[in-house]
Design goal:
The complex is a heterodimer. Helix content of chain A is about 25%, strand content about 30%. Chain A is of the alpha/beta class. In chain A, the strands form two sheets. Chain A has a five-stranded parallel β-sheet, sandwiched between helices. A three-stranded antiparallel β-sheet of chain A has the order 2-1-4, with helices on one face. The chains are: A alpha/beta, B mainly alpha.
């Protein structure tokens, strides 16, 4: 079995005080692993432990060296009044524009600060999935999305690459069950 | 009016100096606006003015004092590590107080302070042109490498942290570049003109541009056009260059900013 890209080992994370944990899981190439739980269960806090947004009280996080990581935030950054087109956003992550879903094509020439919340979320998800990242982390990717777009995202996750791992964070149990290989349950 | 004055060989070096600044500084301004640090230019410009005055008082050429103050300001900002404009307000107030106190207590300091207020582009020489050329070369060399990273940091704030990488080097290089640009511009065109070159062109063009690349082109085009008009107008009307450049930038920028229709 190949070495995991990412491993959380008995991680207890939080801010001023622990919020979640201890939690252990591994994400290996070719896998889609989901962190699932209701709002307030500490999913995003756990993700913050990886980026430094939250504090690790105990345990450790092992990340394989020299892997490319792409991360879609639960609340993606979209600064008002900054002129960036959808095409330019995809260029930032190196996302493949040719392989992009057809529904994205009309959005590419538009400024991202003029897209709807669901359109922008879809673009952000493809910016991560369409990149050459080894590990893609998606935090609540279906937020604000129409049902048809959620089905498109599910099919994108299903057409996975053997060398790519995906860590999915979601509170939508049905979506998680459809697209993931393993589910790590977090209790509130 | 004597149009031939505008083309007098005496003004070639100042014209080239200003043209280089007008073509490069607003590009940095676009990234300053991207980072929501637009007050940086005014804070650093005022700090460099204080550096120029203090430098003169202790026997250092004003440009050396200004560059030293600009580097110090960039270092403090990097150490402070907080986004937003708070730290630049501190630079602004501290620089203003030091510059005026230095000017009030020395004839030389007063001369330098006055020059920084008016913007004496027409009295700049080869040393200023060399500094502007070095700045243009640094921007041409570094900005294409920094651009994608600066955009990623703004639109994907967790990108570097998720990769286990630190972004402080990127921020320090950019801050030093901005500090250098503002110091050099303030010495040639005045403090407010330096601020206006950083702030106004991107402010005017961002609302109507369809994308980042177009916004950069329009920003640069607007700044260069406003500069050429200001250069001629200040000579023909026998006015100090700094305020004329600011007025010209306002004339070019305000109508554009008010017509907020994307292309």
């Amino acid at each position: 079995m190949s070495e995991p890209y990412l491993a959380f080992r008995d991680v207890v994370a939080g801010y001023a005080a622990p919020v979640v944990g201890p939690v252990s899981f591994e994400v290996r190439p070719g896998e889609v692993v989901a962190l699932c739980g209701p709002n307030g269960s500490g999913k995003s806090t756990l993700l913050g432990a990886l980026t430094g947004a939250s504090r690790v009280f105990s345990g450790r996080i092992d990340r394989r060296e020299r892997i490319r990581v792409s991360l879609q935030r639960q609340l993606p950054a979209r600064p008002e009044g900054i002129p960036l087109s959808g095409r330019e956003l995809l260029h930032l992550t190196g996302a493949d524009r040719e392989a992009a879903p057809d529904a994205l094509a009309p959005l590419l020439p538009l400024r991202i600060d003029r897209l709807s919340g669901g359109q922008f979320q879809f673009l952000e998800v493809w910016a991560c999935l369409g990149s050459r990242a080894d590990l893609v982390i998606l935090d609540e990717p279906t937020n604000n999305m129409a049902p048809g777009t959620i089905r498109t995202v599910a099919s994108l996750l299903a057409s996975r690459k053997p060398e790519r791992a995906i860590l999915l964070i979601s509170h939508e149990r049905g979506f998680v069950d459809d697209v993931s290989d393993r589910v790590v349950e977090l209790a509130p | 009016m004597k149009w031939q004055l505008v083309f007098d060989p005496l003004f070639r070096v100042p014209f080239l100096n200003g043209l280089l600044l007008a073509a490069t500084v607003p590009l940095l301004g676009a990234y300053v606006r991207l980072r929501d640090e637009w007050l940086a230019s005014l804070g650093i410009a005022q700090a460099t003015a204080a550096g120029g005055v203090v430098g003169m008082l202790v026997g250092i050429p004003p440009i050396g004092g200004a560059l030293g103050a600009a580097s110090l300001a960039a270092g403090v900002k990097g150490w402070y590590r907080r986004s937003g404009n708070d730290v630049f307000v501190l630079f602004l107030l501290f620089g203003w107080a030091v510059a005026l106190l230095g000017a009030a207590n020395s004839a030389q300091g007063e001369e330098v302070s006055h020059a920084l207020l008016d913007g004496q582009l027409y009295f700049t020489g080869p040393a200023h042109l060399l500094a502007a050329a070095l700045l243009a070369a640094a921007v041409a060399l570094l900005l294409p490498r920094l651009s994608r990273r600066l955009l990623i940091e703004r639109f994907f704030p967790d990108y570097f942290a998720a990769m286990g990488a630190k972004a402080w080097r990127l921020n320090l290089v950019f801050d030093l570049l901005v500090a250098f640009a503002v110091a050099v511009t303030a010495q040639s065109a005045g403090v407010m003109a330096a601020f206006a070159l950083v702030f106004l062109p991107p402010w005017a063009t961002f609302a109507g541009a369809a994308g980042w690349r177009r916004a950069l082109l329009r920003t640069e085009g607007l700044a260069v056009a406003a500069y050429v008009v200001a250069f001629a107008a200040a000579i023909l009307l026998n006015q100090p260059f700094g305020p004329v450049l600011v007025a010209s930038l306002l004339l070019f920028s305000v109508p554009r900013a008010l017509s907020r229709h994307a292309d």
